Amino acid sequence: MKRISRATLAGLVLACAGVGHAYAGKGFFGGMKINGDVRAYDFTRHYSGPVAGQQAFSLGGALNVMSGSVDGFGAGLTFYTAHSLGLNNANPALVDGTLAGFDGIDTLGQAFVQYQNSKVLVRVGDQSIASPWVNPSDSRMIPATYQGVLAAVKPIKGLTISAMRITRFKSRTSNHFSQTDLYNSTGIFNVGGTGGLAGKTEPGLAAVGASYHAAGLKTGVWGYQFYDLAKMAYAQGSYALPGSGSVQPFVGAQVLRETGSGRQYLGPVDATVYGAIAGLKYAGSQLSVGYDDLPAHPGAFGNGDVVSPYTTGYATDPLYTTSMIQGMVDRKTTGHAVKVAATTFLLQRKLRVIASFVDYFNTVYSAYSSARTNEADLDLTYFLGGPLKGLSVRDRVGVAHNLPVVHRFVYNRIMVEYDF
Predict the structure, then answer these.
(1) CATH number of residue 34's parent domain
(2) Strand 54-66 vs strand 247-260: parallel, antiparallel, or unpaired?
(3) pTM, whole model, 2 decimals?
């Protein structure tokens, strides 16, 4: 697939607008929806090791414009912006560049045309993708977006079959799309990735998947081809068991198998993950225990680690034991982990509380030196109401112990957001 410029996509959007105006009256403009958010974000990192702590502030947000439908055809644009307002340290080494990079960001993250009806969706252009291993990773100022083609069909109730071909990626800290991923991370490009492929480019990915939801059962199966890196098969499912009163038990499992693909720029790939989760749901609250096992394969990438080009370093993969600071994938080692997590709502559901603790038992080898790490996270969000509906204040605190080099890592993220 040839590169699709943002100017070309904007032109297609305007062309669709012209068609809508000429042939469908108010269809294109009358059904137009505009929404977005404004975010003010403050990050701090503190380490007990030799690495200096970091801080960053950014103000910005997103403006989404989605047209109405004309015989199923429509178009969408999303503009993102993030700026420090001159409030960050002049020394880049003391700035958390994962928040919004080291300079301001103004970017057209989505610009697509699509056809959609009750059974079919076909979308072409710059867009947000929601799949287990290719997702927005929206925990900073600007989400990751992707350039390519997405198609989905719903042949029967509860079943969705999807396919995609992605040719370019725009990370959370980039102004533009490129043939890169989070292994192409450098000091100022794709900040937050784990690096390892500086100077190289890759032709993106192809994927197919199917999900089925019915009567307490949720399942998903995906196949990913990360060109010149790896090919992955992934399945995950959960089932809500019969409960007593308002208490509903649930169980789930996940499995992953990955091998090398093409030129294998990261080296041989040989990764397997087995995971399980069990828990209880009660009146909107949830308590769960998750487990993942990632066996070692000496000689393979990361001693048998998963190659995840669009989540590595972001800690946004779907494994049950991934937490705010770290996950099994991001560290380029293997082992197993156990995570206990709880979510509840207080103060008439105005306050959401998420708490978790995870213990990682790691394989020590030449590239990873800590046999055991852990992390405790507390996430508080207060949702205002009345005339301030749409405004929320969120504070996420994470403390990780026994990490290589940085030792104890304390993360504090404060975000004020207004959704409109």
Answers:
(1) 2.40.160.10
(2) unpaired
(3) 0.91
